[in-house]
Amino acid sequence: MKMKMKMGLLNSAACVVLVVVSQLFVVSLGDYINRVSEAYLSALGDPGMKNPNVRVALEAWNFCNEVGTEAPNMGSPRLADCADLSCPLITDPIDRAPLGVKSDCVIHHRVNESDNNLRAGDKFPVSDFKPYTNPDLYATEKELYLASLCEVNDSSSDPWQFWMIMLKNGNFDKNTTLCPENGKPVSRIVTDRNFPCFGEGCMNQPLVYHNYSRLVSYGDQNLSITGGFYGSYDLDADLGKGIGNNSYFSASWQKNLSTGSWIFSQRLTTSAKYPWLMLYLRSDATEGPNGGYHYDGRGIMRKLPVSPKFKVRLRLDVKQGGGSNSQFYLLDIGSCWKNNGKPCDSNVLTDVTRYSEMIINPATTNWCRPDNLVSCPPYHVTETGNRIYRNETSRFPYAAYHLYCAPGNAKYLEKPYDICDPYSNPQAQELVQILPHPEWSVHGYPEKKGDGWIGDPRTWELDVGALSSRLYFYQDPGTEPAKRVWSSLNVGTEIYVSQPGETAEWTVSEFDVLVPEGVGDNGTMPY
Hey, how many other C-beta atoms are within 10 angstroms of the C-beta on 107? Predict the structure, then answer.
């Protein structure tokens, strides 16, 4: 059943897409490449978010980064909005319109409603893609199919596909075996960890509505596109009557008329049944597995950043924080390597997802303390490369860490230790969550609580490569240090188990990832 909603639901968090027509003709690929210095260039297909056309996709995951079961009357939870504007130039100087552009512009959709409505078992319009009946496998194939429709090819560079909006439901039903344990299938979940779940079906996929990009006019000189995604995890929600007590999410994009950057606006609201929700804007690799995802995916990052030499630039404006349990990530970086330091190969029993996240919600405290060493990494590395062990209470910067947890398949952990949640990834995971602190501010990160929070919008230039090279990640003793290649960089929030109605709202713009000139697709440097 086709489901449509009125544009009026796209509220302040679901703004319109504004495209200044003149930009369509003055921006070249060379203009896209935004250099920080002679040594750095953009790794993205859409540097600084200045591409004039729409390239956005949406993915939704259950607790263990799979689909499980598709939502009723909805397609597989992968959608895309990829739209190109075409505006004929005027050649007659007497009849020249403002900005030298005719008003009879047209929009070309690369993805239509029938593409987005595809669900498990449906045949793809192209025989190259397999119509799996398994919802998990079908979603991965659908992402590849949508990417093939959206792909941008340029003779002087590698192809790219889209920015990714990611949704995740934190409910986990321990009475099911939908999620493996550290990558291992189990016949029964046995754990003393607590997870939210209202009962059977709590791990459902969301209702997702899509207002397809369309042309609108603003005055005599500007043409615009408007569109967006929004919806709810509450399957009985009637958003036509308003949000009410339901969970809610929205994502939209608009043009900043002064900078030329897209502004991505997002909103996330919890409900009684869905107290733990996540919503991110992702910059993912254009091929191969992405952070937390062991299938072949698509994205916008044509060159993969490698520690210690890469930077991230973005502008973030937090409107609402999402409550005290909102782990708002200025930046979340994701990668994968084995405990012996070797690259991942999609073997979920030995691969390990590695995350590092800078949380800027000032309500987030440091669980890493002298009286709680289990939540601290074994040691901290200073800017000068010195190690400070966590039991050196007069020197260790406990306030710089919210939480550290170790991978569940590690064999040589140093006590005391805590294992990361073994169910919320398709394989074991390791997590380093950091907080604003002078230790990190030397790399452009927030220095103290409140920096960059509500009422303090900022443009950040983060030396992510330098900081990430200092972080402790587990490796088996005596193994060659892993090459830290990052396949996913995200901005957004994880509203951890909270009261109903907690709302986060924010905008991201001018996002760019900068790598040394000459970096290859897999983060390799020419020699």
Answer: 19
pLDDT for residue 157: 77
Output the six-digit token pair for 87.
């505006």
Q: Find all residues with CB under 8 Å of 127, minimum gap 6, and list them.
A: none
- In degrees, to the nearest 5, what angle opens at C-alpha 432 toward C-alphas 195 and 233? 35
Nearest to 276 by CA among 499, 59, 495: 495
Residue-level pLDDT at 516 = 94
What gap in Å lies between CA 238 and CA 214, rounded to an integer?
Answer: 24
Torsion of CA 8, 106, 286, 149, to 10 degrees: 100
The structure tokens listed for 247 are 């969970």
pTM higher than 0.85 for the full model? yes
Please say whether the beta carbons of 47 and 33 come within 8 A.
yes
What integer pLDDT is reported at residue 25 of this predicted model?
34
Residue at token pair 């939502």: 71
Cβ(50)–Cβ(260) below 8 Å: yes
Q: Considering just the CA atoms, what is the radius of gyration of the chain in Å?
A: 23
Dist. CA 253–CA 264, nearest whole Å: 4
141: nearest Cα among 156, 158, 124, 155: 124
- Mark 10-39 as b/e (b = at least 16 C-beta within 10 Å): beebbbbbbbbbbbbeeeeeeebbbeeeee
Query: In this structure, how many other beta carbons lie within 10 angstroms of the beta carbon of residue 449?
Result: 16
pLDDT at 213: 86
As beta bridge partners, residue 85 has 107
Q: Which residues of the chain have pLDDT under 70?
A: 1-38, 89-103, 155-156, 218-222, 224, 520-527
Alpha helix (H) residue ranges in 416-505: 438-441, 464-470
Give the number of other CB atoms < 10 A from CB of residue 522: 15
**Distance (Å, whole) CA 390 – CA 396:** 6
